[in-house]
Automatic annotation (TrEMBL), chain A:
Function summary: Component of the eukaryotic translation initiation factor 3 (eIF-3) complex, which is involved in protein synthesis of a specialized repertoire of mRNAs and, together with other initiation factors, stimulates binding of mRNA and methionyl-tRNAi to the 40S ribosome. The eIF-3 complex specifically targets and initiates translation of a subset of mRNAs involved in cell proliferation.
Subunit-structure text: Component of the eukaryotic translation initiation factor 3 (eIF-3) complex, which is composed of 13 subunits: EIF3A, EIF3B, EIF3C, EIF3D, EIF3E, EIF3F, EIF3G, EIF3H, EIF3I, EIF3J, EIF3K, EIF3L and EIF3M.
Protein name according to UniProt: Eukaryotic translation initiation factor 3 subunit F
InterPro entries registered for this protein in UniProt: eIF3f, EIF3F/CSN6-like_C, JAMM/MPN+_dom, MPN
Subcellular location, record wording: Cytoplasm
Domain MPN: residue ranges: 40-170
The UniProt record lists the keyword Nucleus: no
Keywords: Cytoplasm, Initiation factor, Protein biosynthesis
GO cellular component: eukaryotic 43S preinitiation complex; eukaryotic 48S preinitiation complex; eukaryotic translation initiation factor 3 complex, eIF3m
Domain of life: Eukaryota
BP GO annotations: formation of cytoplasmic translation initiation complex
Family statement drawn from the similarity comment of this UniProt entry: Belongs to the eIF-3 subunit F family.
Primary residence: cytoplasm
From TrEMBL, chain B:
Cited function: Component of the eukaryotic translation initiation factor 3 (eIF-3) complex, which is involved in protein synthesis of a specialized repertoire of mRNAs and, together with other initiation factors, stimulates binding of mRNA and methionyl-tRNAi to the 40S ribosome. The eIF-3 complex specifically targets and initiates translation of a subset of mRNAs involved in cell proliferation. Component of the eukaryotic translation initiation factor 3 (eIF-3) complex, which is required for several steps in the initiation of protein synthesis. The eIF-3 complex associates with the 40S ribosome and facilitates the recruitment of eIF-1, eIF-1A, eIF-2:GTP:methionyl-tRNAi and eIF-5 to form the 43S pre-initiation complex (43S PIC). The eIF-3 complex stimulates mRNA recruitment to the 43S PIC and scanning of the mRNA for AUG recognition.
Region (Disordered), start-end ranges: 269-295
Membership in a protein family: Belongs to the eIF-3 subunit H family.
Major site of localization recorded for this protein: cytoplasm
Name this protein carries in UniProt: Eukaryotic translation initiation factor 3 subunit H
Source taxonomy: Eukaryota, Metazoa, Chordata, Craniata, Vertebrata
Alphabetical keyword list: Cytoplasm, Initiation factor, Protein biosynthesis
Length: 305, 341
């Protein structure tokens, strides 16, 4: 990083809390004292970018940090974008390229002016003293910033994704420390995002982690197969209930009733006529499309003559 | 618009690109976050029939093109006259280099409205990209089709024949006839393969566990008339353009043949007069330059016709795909009713 723009933050020995009490406090406390409600909504694009920047980190860097962008309202915070910020971390100091962060934010703002800085992220499991210092910097950029950690080292065999808000604690006037209180995370998707992610889930299955995009009718077939799977799960549950293995749950029964009633009851002739007219429409359009294609092909050949 | 700043980059980047001259890649590898970013860009910034565009970054590995990142382009607003696209791009690339993101320009992406993207602007942009980097592609993202249930992302590249023609800028009928290029040979589609790292797979696993089951299965939606109506409307507009074009070409042909006839008649009259004069002993009339008298009519540009034909072809393909899907769904609905007819 360029020398003039980094901020050198010395490690302050006045902080009398070491890292382990942070973690224990986190595990105990669930009451939220922050301005934000308990929800943080994250879009999957943010997580994918974080994982990607972790994979591209510099040699020797154990973690990556970056800024989170999004929108915040009274009840929840929605994280929609992020970018990584180069930083250097060693035993006793932390250097973050804040000018870079500002520049990137300006550039991003040109594309989506409604996104604001709402916090920052770091990969790794714990919250260290350096995190506290970085968090202070971000508090200057955004009111009550969110800190998100993504455990890319897979410490507990899972990628733990957590979000925290900081609040003051301690004796006022004397040693004051910072406490990070966890927030609940919800993943939210736009409809199209959901469809994209569902498709990409299939890369998990293939050994080379690749997946092509399938053709039209095959997609309908796979969606139908999906529904069939769900139906068979339900059927096995119903059979269990009927044979007495599982206790009947009334709410589930009501849903089932709803489901069966959803198939509309139409007389056979009406349904035949509806079906036939729809099929005719579709066939006609297909025929016209084919005709059009033949026509332009002919036209082409005639011109060349 | 994209062509302007690309010239600045091409000189710098050319030295760093692999020097493969005749290139035909088998497929394009795309990462998860590129797909998600493109989806998000359209979702947040695109409205209606406006297109959103952006740049693709990645690298070339052996004969494959890998797209690893992308960044969006701001919309063109009228009140932002002094917005410098070149500077935006340069700054973005410079910043991304700091965080070790591949800063090689390998193409660009664009969203489309019901599949209408075959246009002169796209051709020009893609040509300038491909001219500098052989392997570049344009990713076309169709948000409306995606919203119907399946991700629709296609990668296109200009065929070598079309590249030749664009290079020579010879769009006359003779030029196109020489290259014998048809509307089907303008763009070649490159298959896209989604490739993810192991860590992304872990992330996907986590996401699947934590998110609720999708409650909208758009792919099994039975209603089709809306979509069909709009597609057919667009198709009809294009057909009108096409017929106008054909009309123009016909008049050109007619004019040309009329002119040929006139030329013949003139020559004949000339010969007759000369014969008469010779019989009377007078000197023959000087040979006039007939080409100056009968100027050949302007041949209409064939490129637009090609583009329109390509677009119509595209529309027809999309419509056929859509109808086949819907036919399948209708038969499923029939089975659900349980009426054995």
């Amino acid at each position: 990083p360029s020398s003039g723009a980094t901020a050198r933050i010395p490690w302050r020995p006045a902080l009398s809390f070491s890292s382990s009490p942070f973690v224990t406090i986190l595990h105990f406390l669930y009451k939220i004292m922050a301005v934000h409600g308990p929800f943080v909504k994250i879009h999957p694009v943010v997580l994918a970018s974080i994982v990607d920047s972790y994979e591209r980190r510099n040699e020797g860097a154990s973690r990556v940090i970056g800024t989170l962008l999004g929108t915040a309202d009274k009840h929840s915070v929605e994280v929609t974008n992020c970018f990584s910020v180069p930083h250097n971390e060693s035993e006793d100091e932390v250097a973050v390229d804040m000018e870079f962060a500002k520049n990137m934010y300006e550039l991003h703002k040109k594309v989506s002016p409604s996104e604001v800085i709402i916090g920052w992220y770091a990969t790794g499991y714990d919250i260290t003293e350096h995190s506290v210092l970085i968090h202070e910097y971000y508090s200057r950029e955004a009111p009550n910033p969110i800190h998100m950690t993504v455990d890319t080292a897979l410490q507990s065999n899972k990628m733990n994704i957590r979000a925290y808000v900081s609040s003051q604690m301690g004796v006022p006037g004397k040693t004051v420390g910072v406490m990070f209180t966890p927030l609940t995370i919800k993943y939210i998707y736009y409809d199209t995002e959901r469809i994209g992610v569902d498709l990409l889930q299939r890369t998990r299955a293939s050994p080379s982690r690749t997946n092509g995009l399938t053709t039209d009718l095959a997609q309908v077939a796979s969606a139908a197969g999906h529904v069939q799977e769900m139906l068979s799960t339900m059927l096995s549950y119903i059979e269990d209930v009927l044979s007495g293995k599982v206790m009947a749950d009334n709410s589930v029964g009501r849903y089932l009733m709803d489901l069966v009633n959803k198939v509309p009851k139409i007389t056979a002739e009406d349904f035949e006529s509806m079906l036939n007219s729809n099929i005719n429409d579709l066939l006609m359009v297909t025929y016209l499309a084919n005709l059009t294609q033949a026509q332009i092909a002919l036209n082409e050949k005639l011109v060349v003559l | 618009m994209l062509t302007v700043f690309f010239d600045l980059w091409s000189d710098k980047k050319r030295s760093k690109i692999s020097s493969v001259k005749t290139f035909s890649s088998s497929c394009v590898f795309v990462r998860l976050q590129v797909v998600l970013k493109i989806i998000k860009h359209y979702q947040e910034e695109g409205q209606g029939s406006e297109v959103v565009q952006g740049v693709l970054l990645g690298l070339v590995v052996e004969d494959r093109l890998e797209i690893t990142n992308c960044f969006p382009f701001p919309q063109h607003t009228e009140d932002d006259v002094d917005f410098d696209e070149v500077q935006y791009q340069m700054e973005m690339m410079r910043s991304l280099r700091h965080v070790n993101i591949d800063h090689l320009h390998v193409g660009w992406y664009q969203s489309t409205y019901y599949g209408s993207f075959v246009s002169r602007a796209l051709l020009d942009s893609q040509f300038s990209y491909q001219h500098a980097i052989e392997e570049s592609v344009v990713l076309i993202y169709d948000p409306i089709k995606t919203a119907q249930g399946s991700l629709c992302l296609k990668a296109y590249r200009l065929t070598p024949k079309l590249m030749e023609i664009c290079k020579e800028k010879d769009f006359s009928p003779e030029g196109l006839k020489k290259a014998c290029i048809g509307y089907e040979h303008m763009f070649e589609e490159v298959p896209i393969v989604i490739k993810n790292s192991h860590l992304i797979n872990v992330l996907l696993l986590d996401l699947q566990e934590k998110s609720t089951v999708a409650d909208k299965h758009e792919l099994l939606n039975l209603s089709s008339s809306n979509h069909l109506e709009k597609s057919l409307q667009l198709l009809m507009d294009r057909m009108d353009d096409m017929s106008q074009d054909i009309g123009k070409y016909n008049t050109y042909c007619r004019n040309l043949s009329k002119q040929q006839q006139q030329k013949q008649q003139y020559l004949q009259r000339r010969q007759q007069e000369n014969a008469q004069r010779q019989s009377r002993g007078e000197p023959p009339l000087p040979e006039e330059d007939i080409s100056k008298m009968f100027k050949p009519p302007q041949a209409p540009a064939r490129m637009d016709t090609l583009l329109i034909a390509g677009q119509i072809n595209n529309y027809c393909q999309n419509i056929k795909e859509f109808t086949s899907q819907n036919l399948g769904k209708l038969f499923m609905a029939e089975a659900l009713q349980g009426h054995s007819s």
